[in-house]
Amino acid sequence: MAYDATKLKDYQIAELAEANMPTPGQWREKLGLEKDEVIPYGRICKLDFMKIIDRLRNRPNGKYINVTAITPTPLGEGKTTTTLGLVEGLGKRGMNVGAAIRQPSGGPTMNIKGTAAGGGNALAIPMTEFSLGLTGDINDIMNAHNLGMVALNARMQHERNYSDEELAKRNLRRLDIDPTNVQWNWVIDFCAQGLRKIIMGIGGRTDGYMMESKFNIAVSSELMAILAVARDLQDLRERIGKIIVAYDKKGNPVTTEDLEVAGAMTAFMRNTINPTLISTAEYQPVLVHAGPFANIAIGQSSIIADRIALKMFDYHVTESGFAADIGFEKFWNVKCRFSGLVPNVSVITTTIRALKMHGGGPKVVPGRPLPEEYTRQNLELLEKGIANLLHHINIVKKSGVIPVVCINAFYTDTKEEIAMVRRYAEQAGARCALSEHWLKGGEGALELADAVIDACNEKVDFKYLYPLEMPLRQRVELIAKEVYGADGVSWTPEAEAKAKMFESNPAYADFATMMVKTHLSLSHDPNLKGVPKGWVLPVRDVLVFAGAKFLCPMTGSIMMMPGTGSDPAFRRIDVDTTTGKVLGLF
């Protein structure tokens, strides 16, 4: 049943839906799983993917559906809500369907954007567990990552304090780490702008190695990227051992294996390899694996989750972070290349609100009332902003994947506005569906479900944007021009020198290109809305994630640690001390 989303808050809908949520035992029976394939964690469970994938290895894959979006407002346009609503709609049509979504970060959950649990009647449950740590994957990643930093700084301290002979007595060899070329840092899962730049090791000889350092947000850790692309525990262990934490004074990489910490880091992450199973508010299965932030990370649900879901379900819906220029581009050219999986459909989530913003509407500020241009009919603003939607449709079409536009309905949208978006989307060669999943759950997503089912019957001519043999700078140029719409790319001398070094070293020949760019514009500048023209993409640095096998060009002023706004969500979150229930999550 659908709850009254106009009167109830998300956490209240979740509480009502959770009363009948399947138990781990009921999920096992419902999904046809074996007893040892389900690992209970209280009200939820993890799935032993190696056992499942081995048992179902000969079963054909189901239909593979990606969900992405247009360039969002700072409020987000509802990709997770659409993912869950589509699953509910396909469930209403009697389909064997499931989804894979990303675990929310404590950063946005306690900041201005809120949790990534969807909303209204298109909601992930149990909402409190989902929003506040779930089965501990992000915490395990933080511990593993920070252990690597502990090992690095301790080694630097001991190498400073001891001679080669004294190091040998302690069974250590001198790594001769260059303190000016340390790549590793600390992570925390909050938006903590005060930790973007720190000095550590202040004190005496026993207080660590004094150097400049920083904190990034936990889900941007290379360990999260590795979890998203790893195929099994052995692959995870091998990738962790290849992480470059620093360079020595001769310019040679120093890895976690060199620090003899890779095994212990893997021990912290041993349980992260199995996806967590939760539910939609209408009790369809949802796998949660890997993390968000496609602007600064891969931002995809994991390859592992997709592999087992495609065996378990006839229709599998997987989520990519942010808009098609970054989230779908990484799904298309990185995740699919690593997994070998070919998608059937990509759903492009759009809202009338965001299109009006791209048409020149007033600035959208989280925590403040929307200007009336967004709550009243304004066809002129809307028509100007539709160019952004058409750009994203074309990005998906370049891959050969079938695009389906989902108009994520708001009660302020008018029939004329909806008709205009539908007309332009269909003229651009996309199916278009209005979906009221937030208000009505699966019943409100039937039009979207039907459009996706119909699109899944079409043949897909899937192709990557570039071959792996293409040099890094040419790849970046191609992505900038063909995906973002830039005129070209400019490189700082430091970034270009790094790019040339990576291009000349065969060890990096098969590394993926993982762009780091703002999600608030097709360009590098978050203030440029719509479809900017006459601009050049500036690349200021190139990071290397040797374990994940990513080269990460850093563009514009994008940072790996977001900041907390003046009206964060944590101001409204509390606990009912009588029942122990968490209040105020959204």
Task: Annotate the secondary structure layout.
Blueprint: H1 10-17, H2 24-31, E1 38-41, E2 44-47, H3 49-55, E3 63-69, H4 79-92, E4 97-101, H5 106-109, E5 118-119, E6 122-125, H6 127-131, H7 137-161, H8 164-169, E7 177-182, E8 186-188, E9 198-200, E10 211-213, E11 215-217, H9 222-229, H10 233-241, E12 244-248, E13 253-255, H11 262-269, E14 276-280, E15 285-288, H12 303-312, E16 315-319, H13 324-339, E17 345-350, H14 352-358, H15 379-398, E18 402-408, H16 415-427, E19 431-435, H17 437-440, H18 446-456, H19 472-484, E20 488-491, H20 493-504, E21 512-513, E22 536-545, E23 550-555, E24 574-575, E25 582-583
Parallel strand pairs: 3-16, 3-17, 4-15, 4-16, 8-11, 17-18, 18-19, 20-22, 21-23
Antiparallel strand pairs: 1-2, 2-14, 5-6, 6-14, 7-12, 9-10, 12-13, 14-15, 22-23, 24-25
Report what the structure shows.
The chain is an alpha/beta fold and 586 residues long. Among the domains are: 137-267, 2-Layer Sandwich (Domain 2, N(10)-formyltetrahydrofolate synthetase), CATH 3.30.1510.10; 472-555, Formyltetrahydrofolate synthetase, domain 3 (Roll). The chain contains 20 helices and 25 strands. Strands 1, 2, 3, 4, 5, 6, 14, 15, 16, 17, 18 and 19 form a twelve-stranded mixed sheet that branches. Strands 20-22-23-21 form a four-stranded mixed sheet. A hairpin with a 4-residue loop joins strand 22 (536-545) and strand 23 (550-555). The longest helix is centred in the first third of the chain and has 25 residues, at 137-161. The relative contact order is 0.16. The model has no long low-confidence stretch (mean pLDDT 96).
